[in-house]
Amino acid sequence: MPFVQIIILAAVQGITEFLPVSSSAHLILVPKLTGLQDQGLLVDVAVHVGTLLAVMIYFWRDLLGMSTALVSIPHQISNHHRFNPEYWLFLKLVVATLPVIVAGFLVNFYMGDILRSIEVIAWATLGFGLLLLIADKSNMTVRNIEHISFAGAIMVGIFQVFALIPGTSRAGVTMTAARFLGVERQDAARFSLLLSIPAIVGAGTLKGLELYQTGDPVLNGVVLTVGGLAFLFALVAISLLMVWLRRASFTPFVVYRFLLGGALLYYVYGAPGLS
């Protein structure tokens, strides 16, 4: 695989996985629009592992807090203590993950690749970009992550189901749901990115099983390089996103989605011979 393609794949997966712009759409568009060869299952698994490590390292305090809270449950019960906030956060993340597990199985079993067209990506990019703009501009930023109720977690989880449509953006649609709940931007992103951990684990596991069935799960320099680069790109993207949302809005991402969606619609409908 050419080194240029390795960098492109790592950058696309690492950057777009956690920004509200849809990584699945970009990964579909890159080979469709550039003519690059399919990267294969091994590289897919590598970039998923890289992005997973990045989000786990960035939110290591949250993960440690949730792990400690779970381990200390017997002690809290025996001493009639209130459960730690990290325990409730863990449960809310579990609740928010359940809808996409069921929906993901059904979509994968019954629909396959039917949604992976440029036309679907274009309309989803525009439509869910507009929804993000409405949610971001119409709600007060007065709540933090602890204010997300179980009903709110279910709502975020239901919104996450729409991410099965390429172009929607898992990060974008879950941040949209959190903003509709009135959660401030940085905590909306925090909940969304923590919620990405089981999603990435699930996607990576499925691809890993597919890879195992091929009988060729061999690590090599290309795999290690693309995984490592995806990790670095993802870590930088998460850090910049959290810094940006501390002071600014989601508007630049919405503008990007409008430009990308418009360009794709022109490619599909307005440029004979291109599509």
| Total of helices | 12
Provide the residue-averaged pLDDT. 85
Distance between the termini: 26 Å
What is the helix content? Answer: over 70%
**Shape field:** globular
Strand content range = under 5%
Structural class: mainly alpha
Number of strands: 0
Order of helices and strands: HHHHHHHHHHHH
| Weakly predicted, low-confidence segments | none
Radius of gyration over alpha carbons?
19 Å
| Largest sheet descriptor | none
Number of domains: 1
Describe this structure in words.
By secondary structure, this protein is mainly α. The chain has one domain (3-270). Helix content is 76%, strand content 0%. α7 (118-137) packs parallel to α9 and α10 (185-214) packs antiparallel against α11 (221-247). The protein is globular and about 60 Å long.
Blueprint of the fold:
Blueprint: H1 3-16, H2 23-34, H3 41-58, H4 60-71, H5 73-78, H6 85-110, H7 118-137, H8 150-161, H9 170-180, H10 185-214, H11 221-247, H12 251-270
List keywords for this structure.
12 helices; mainly alpha; single chain; 76% helix
Condensed summary:
This protein has 275 residues and is an all-alpha fold.
